[in-house]
Amino acid sequence: MTKALLIPYTFTLLNWAAIVGLYHFIHKTALGDIWLEQHVPVRLQDLG
Amino acid sequence: MEAEICRLESVGRASGYALHGGLKMALILIWISLAFLLYVHVGYPLVLLAWRRLAPRPVKKGFGEPSVSILIAARNEKDRIEAKIMNCLQLDYPPGKLQVVVALDAPSDGTDQIARKCESEIVNVLCCSQHQGKAGTLNGAATSARGDILVFADVRQQFDRHSLRELVANFHDPSIGAVSGELMLMDENGHEAADGVGLYWRYEKWIRSQEAEIHSMMGATGSIYAIRRELFTPMPPDTILDDVAISMNIVLRGKRAVFDRSARAYDQVSASPKLEYGRKVRTLTGNYQVLARMPALLSPLHNPVWLQFISHKVGRLLVPYFLVLLFVANIFALHGIYLWLFCLQATWYMMAWAGSFLSLPTPTSDTPQMVAGGREVRRS
């Protein structure tokens, strides 16, 4: 029963994610995920 | 659809009424939406099945031992970084042919100190003082790589012992430019997850494997994929999906990006779809970014897997809009089979709503379970 309800929930939620994803892309809002919050120009000399 | 509209028009005329223009439009939109949704979720997989049977392109694997650099980009991972480095060192591959580049993006939790303790001839630790983002960190790691093959890995997931050898074997085939391994999402019982997110991921992997057997998959799995070093081009530092950008760039350059299920990495399935949702939002935002930055992917003249890309990646981005269109259009056509269709949709969304109460997160260990099929795969 749980599985039967989780499938439509997951499907709906992941589809909704596409709409929210477009919003983030258009507005260039921070995703607050992994560690991509801060975007600075790459400076390879800082590495190593 | 035409027959249905004609039938309704005849019924309308017979009863003295012309078919309302709004109803006709609703029926058209319903059928367009249904056709699109069925193609993306049923038709396209069937096309792939038939295509794979008619024109398979198997990969000619060969188990040589080219030099390999494993690139691990991380930020604050003090609890996992040592286990990940140990995992890399225990892989079934000659140490003399292996390099592990740990690129740290200005960690603030002491990850760099732990990683430095593991430094050796094989393990190189790079640490930058300013945040670069994951793509920028990977760019830096790639400049330090010595191997002919670059393997990209995340800290969280653990490789199966034979994964590296299996991944690398694909490059024996000169047409192969990128190879993705299989990410196994395990449940708390040590079996591959089959509920909600787990089921979705299994479906996605099946699609990828079919696509790869024809030509190329549409994007690699970020936690385990490999490319030829000469095909690596630095990414803009704000790239969201390095795995999709790198692999699709390789496809545009005429090489194949394939999926090898014998190279596995393990992780725990998200405790609830809500947790997976955040990751998915990021992934789909990244897909929009890929479309904007690589417009050649939308051109059948430049993209050798154009049909697959449109059907898989673009189709998935458009599905929610057609779902909304279908539901709204259906409200204006509530008779006969359309009433049943509406009831089906309403039931589906009510089940989804009920499902939201069942998906409360449960506490999970931070360390991925290293079990598959009930047996331990590897434990350091």
Strand order of the largest sheet of chain B: 3-2-1-4-7-6-8-5
Shape descriptor of chain A: rod-shaped
Structural class from helices and strands of chain A? mainly alpha
How far do the termini of chain B sit from each other? 61 Å
Terminal residue distance of chain A = 54 Å
Beta-strand content bin of chain B: 15-25%
Gross CATH architecture of the largest domain in chain B: Alpha-Beta Complex
Mean pLDDT of chain A equals 67
CATH structural class of the largest domain in chain B: Alpha Beta
Could you state the oligomeric state of the chains shown?
heterodimer
Major sheet size, sense and barrel closure of chain A: none
Strand content of chain A: under 5%
Question: Overview of this structure, please?
Answer:
- The complex is a heterodimer of chains A (48) and B (380).
- Chain A is mainly α and 48 residues long.
- Chain A has one helix at residues 2-27.
- Chain A is rod-shaped, with a radius of gyration of 17 Å.
- Chain A starts with a helix and ends in a 21-residue tail after the last helix.
- In chain A, 35% of the residues are buried.
- With 380 residues, chain B is α/β, with parallel strands linked by helices.
- Chain B folds into two domains: 1-56 and 319-359, no CATH class; 68-304, Spore Coat Polysaccharide Biosynthesis Protein SpsA, Chain A (Alpha-Beta Complex).
- Helices cover 47% and strands 16% of the residues of chain B.
- Chain B has helices at 2-14, 21-54, 81-89, 111-117, 134-144, 163-169, 197-214, 242-252, 273-293, 306-331, 336-358, and strands at residues 68-74, 98-105, 123-128, 149-153, 158-159, 176-186, 224-228, 256-268, 371-372, 375-376.
- In chain B, the strands form two sheets. Chain B has an eight-stranded mixed beta sheet, sandwiched between helices. In chain B, strands 9-10 form a two-stranded antiparallel ribbon.
- The longest helix of chain B has 34 residues, at 21-54.
- Chain B is globular.
- The relative contact order of chain B is 0.14.
- The chains are: A mainly alpha (48), B alpha/beta (380).
